[in-house]
Every structure is written in structure tokens, then in C-alpha cells.
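wait is this the right file?? whatever heres the structure
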């Protein structure tokens, strides 16, 4: 059996995690990092699945920090990171492993998403979805600049010098930041055309917390967008790229507030996320669930 640990970070993911876990081939070690203190969740998973360890963080540390905990715990040559709403196909793991044997000098591999119109990968100098799809149709694997974070196959040896995810990012763009650092260090990222996966997107938590999670998404997307731009292109570029969105979010909140308070809360979250980033405050918002 190949030297792989499967890693899944969860938060309020009770209703979706089992489909993901059941798609993983039997016999592999699995680490679930839960961003809460839910002892019942831990017991249920560990009693239901062999070779599974559930780590409780006892607070919501976010996606980057929680993944780092799992990555640092893993002792295997490879780690296959999955979101709880991602489902492997029957031959996904074997296709990835076959490519890993052929390529060898890679840092990250990724399967191809089947159920969305846009690819789960791209290039920093601009994407052309049609060209990317054509390349995949004609090649077993293609080299890319970045992959999306819901399915990432780590060659752990390649991360010794650069580390894993930026712990300052709670959620959003943490995988793009990691890929950018890999490319700056001349490390390779590939997408494997015959390895496929289903990802439901935005379904990694239970439905009863949808509203609060949407508020959190809006806040953190704005904060992370500014932080990412500042980190890689400088603070002036970050202000220039986000200031129009900052004003737009404030105006939309003020206009919509009396008509639709729920929708207005999303614009308020965008405004406050950017405001905190502008003031160089940490990514501090936590979903109230």
C-alpha cells in the first residue's frame, strides 16, 4: 500500500464528512482535524472508521492553521488533503499515484474536478479555460501555476524548505499563496487528467449554519484578498485593487439595510473585512455558531 495519509479539516461538517470518508480506499491512515471541541464528533468518527484519528483543536483555528497541524503530524511520504465535501472516484488515488511515479519531481498534484464548468487550476498570468481543457484532453498531465485547495496531493519532501500554509490566513487564498511560494522556489505543480473528483463547493458545513458561514465567507474573502495582494505585490497595489470594492460594499450595505437586512449583512461583512485588513489587524472574525 502506498505511503499516503489522508487529511481533512472540518467545522460543523457532520452531514457531509461521511460521503468523503467512504470514498477513500480502505487501509490508509486518515487524519481529521476538527476546529471545535466536539468530543462526540471525534468519538463517532474514530469508532466508525479504521485507521482514523480525529484531532480536536478546541477552537476554530481556520483552514490554514488546522491543515498545518495535520500536515505536520503526518509521517508518510505523501499527504492527500481533501475538503469534507469532496468525493473521490474509484480510481482517483491509483491515477494520482501512477502520475507521482512517472513525474517524481513534483511538489503538488491535483485531480480534475468533474462537476464544475471552470477548472480547479490555472496560471498566474491569466487563465484561458478552453486552452486548459484542451491541454488536459491531449495530455495525461499538465504543469500549472496553482491548484484549488479542496484536493491537493503533497509530496512532503518538497516542503521542507518553504513550510506549508500561511498561518495568518484564516481561510481563502491560502492555497494560492502556497502555490505562489512553490513556483517562486522552482517547485512543480501538476494536474492529472485521468484522476477525477467531485466537489460540491460551499457544502463543507451543515445547512443550519449557512447564513453565519456566508457572513464569514464575505468577511474573510475581503481580508484575505487584501492580505494576499499586499504580501505579493505591496501595500499600494493592495489598496488600489480593493478600494473600489471597499466603497461599493459600504454603499450597498447602507442602501440595502432597510430592505433586506440579511443581504445587507453580507455587504457589511465585506466592508469590515477590508477595513480590518486596511488597519493591518489580524484575520479575527469567527463564525458565531
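ok assuming it is, sequence goes like this
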Amino acid at each position: 500500500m502506498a505511503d499516503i495519509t489522508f487529511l481533512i479539516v472540518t467545522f460543523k461538517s457532520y452531514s457531509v464528512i461521511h460521503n468523503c470518508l467512504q470514498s477513500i480506499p480502505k487501509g490508509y491512515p486518515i487524519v481529521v482535524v476538527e476546529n471545535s471541541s466536539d468530543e462526540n464528533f471525534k468519538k463517532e468518527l474514530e469508532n466508525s472508521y479504521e485507521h482514523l484519528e480525529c484531532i480536536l483543536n478546541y477552537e476554530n483555528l481556520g483552514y490554514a492553521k488546522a491543515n498545518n497541524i495535520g500536515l505536520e503530524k503526518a509521517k508518510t511520504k505523501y499527504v492527500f488533503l481533501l475538503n469534507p465535501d469532496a468525493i473521490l472516484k474509484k480510481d482517483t488515488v491509483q491515477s494520482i499515484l501512477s502520475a507521482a511515479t512517472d513525474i517524481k519531481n513534483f511538489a503538488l498534484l491535483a485531480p480534475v474536478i468533474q462537476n464544475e464548468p471552470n477548472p480547479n487550476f490555472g496560471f498566474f498570468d491569466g487563465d484561458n479555460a478552453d486552452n486548459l481543457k484542451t491541454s488536459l484532453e491531449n495530455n495525461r498531465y499538465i504543469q500549472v501555476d496553482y491548484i484549488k485547495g479542496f484536493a491537493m496531493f503533497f509530496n512532503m519532501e518538497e516542503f521542507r524548505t518553504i513550510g506549508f500554509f500561511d498561518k495568518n490566513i484564516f481561510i481563502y487564498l491560502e492555497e494560492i499563496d502556497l502555490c505562489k511560494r512553490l513556483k517562486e522556489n522552482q517547485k512543480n505543480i501538476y494536474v492529472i487528467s485521468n484522476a477525477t473528483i467531485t466537489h460540491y463547493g460551499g457544502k463543507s458545513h451543515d445547512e443550519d449554519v449557512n447564513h453565519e458561514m456566508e457572513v464569514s465567507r464575505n468577511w474573510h474573502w475581503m481580508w484575505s484578498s487584501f492580505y494576499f495582494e499586499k504580501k505579493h505585490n505591496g501595500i499600494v497595489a493592495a489598496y488600489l485593487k480593493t478600494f473600489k470594492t471597499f466603497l461599493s460594499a459600504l454603499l450597498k450595505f447602507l442602501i440595502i439595510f432597510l430592505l433586506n437586512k440579511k443581504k445587507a449583512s453580507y455587504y457589511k461583512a465585506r466592508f469590515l473585512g477590508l477595513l480590518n485588513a486596511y488597519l493591518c489587524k489580524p484575520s479575527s472574525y469567527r463564525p458565531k455558531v
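The radius of gyration is 19 Å. so i think its the right one actually
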